[in-house]
Design goal:
The protein is mainly β. It is 0% helix and 28% strand. The chain starts with 13 loop residues before the first strand and ends in a 16-residue tail after the last strand.
Length: 88
């Protein structure tokens, strides 16, 4: 099944990932994401239509990337293991 692209209709608090498969491989190094990254979709930037705000598990908020470059993680898709924060 083809992954569902993130749009302005994607519900807030949906788990998403960056869609490396949907873009040329020579562009991959231009983005600060990895294939293991999972993001929480927080919505569209009002002043930048088509661009989203996402949060990482460790609380970083990232914004300004095109929504079309992210896909929704389906319930059938295996979740990559999430790193645990090391306690000191």
């Amino acid at each position: 099944m083809k992954p569902k692209r993130v749009t302005k209709r994607t519900p807030v608090n949906t788990l998403i990932r960056f869609d490396f498969d949907g873009m040329p491989s020579d562009w991959h190094s231009e983005y600060p994401f990895t294939r293991r990254d999972v993001f929480l979709f927080l919505g569209e930037v009002q002043q930048m239509p088509g661009h989203c705000v996402v949060a990482t598990k460790d609380g970083r908020v990232i914004w300004g990337y095109h929504m079309e470059n992210f896909v929704v993680i389906s319930e059938e898709e295996p979740m990559p293991p999430l790193k645990r924060n090391a306690r000191k």
